[in-house]
Amino acid sequence: MKSRIIKENRNKSGIYRWVNNTNNNSYVGSGINLSKRIGDYYKKSELMRNPRPINFALLKYKHKNFTLEIIEYCSKEKLLEREQHYLDLLKLKYNILKFAYSLLSFKHNA
Fold first, then answer.
1. Residues with Cβ within 8 Å of residue 90, at least 6 apart in sequence
2. CA-wise closest residue to 56 among 94, 23, 16, 8
């Protein structure tokens, strides 16, 4: 499944969502090249290097307990606007940022 997803999304930009099938928590993200962006979630080194709730969840529950959805394809120019739409629309447990591709609302733990 992983290789099919990566192949089908090569050079496409859009919005994706990971849904944890054990607790229904989810995460929304975007990528200019979905193939590369999604591929990073399958690399343990990337998950460990970047300490975010979705990465911890993928490591803890394993990929087999998640559903990956491509919510929509869109142009690179519309990417942040469309991601923000889903950040505002959905209740997302794993997203720590409130604004698409912005650290404006993020507070680091001391």
1. 17, 26, 28
2. 94
pTM: 0.87
For the chain, list the domains and their CATH numbers: 2-89 (3.40.1440.10)
Q: What is the pLDDT of residues 40-58, one digit of tens each?
A: 999 999 999 988 999 999 9
Q: Give the CA distances from residue 17 to residues 93, 107, 108, 110, in Å, rounded to whole numbers and listed in that order.
A: 12, 23, 24, 29
Give the integer Cα–Cα distance in Å for 28 and 32.
Answer: 14
**How many whole angstroms separate alpha carbon 108 and alpha carbon 29?**
20
Residues in the chain, total: 110
For 31, phi then psi, to 5°, come to: -155, 140
